[in-house]
Amino acid sequence: MHQLTIAGKAYRSRLLVGTGKYKDFAETRAAIDASGAEIVTVAIRRTNIGQDASQPNLLDAIPPSKFTILPNTAGCYTADDAVRTLRLARELLDGHPLCKLEVLGDPTNLFPNMPETLKAAETLVKEGFQVMVYCADDPIQCKMLEEIGCVAVMPLASLIGSGMGIVNPWNLRLIIDNAKVPIIVDAGVGTASDAAIAMELGCDGVLMNTAIAHAKNPILMASAMKKGVEAGREAFLAGRMARKYYSADPSSPTSGLIGS
To answer: Considering 66, 100, 216, 227, which one is annotated as catalytic?
Structure first.
């Protein structure tokens, strides 16, 4: 199967994972290992990756030599804040240009503020960042983000941390069918079947955090998510049978039966 390619780099895994909400860095690393993920996203405003030398550094548990670190702007509500945060991240990561942009519009539902997201994306792309962008499942705005120059567009499946799964598969299909960059579902996945459905629709990958970190057994759920993404991708490539309502079709041939 073709690998996932983002900003010119190929990845074997199509599962991207976050690092928040675990009990400690050891559990974070164990879950990431079980998931098989190669791209790991880190909230710069909430996680120490060198900003505070007196505190444990996540990069000691998840070294950039083994994982692609994807700094994100979780907690930012304006384009200016998001841009400032990612400039800091680039300094902390020795010029690393790949980033995840998210500009939130509401602290309760964490839905994206799309005008500010578009504004921030334009600035970051002009400054040489390779922008993967969290956004609403709006086909028009997703295309606008692609045309700005984002290297991956990441529409939500449902609200961040909700575990509600894919609430609007039809919009996702419109986005996928019209895209020339990877489309990665970001937010709302609750269990392995949600991840499989996203991949069966034709998404290029799935990004998740809470679904693994808040599972009763995060390590086991990480393993399940890995399998769900792989199974969904294989099913998409295989091409499912057509739905035939009210039409029975025997799975075995009816001619040449023994004794007939």
So the answer is: 100
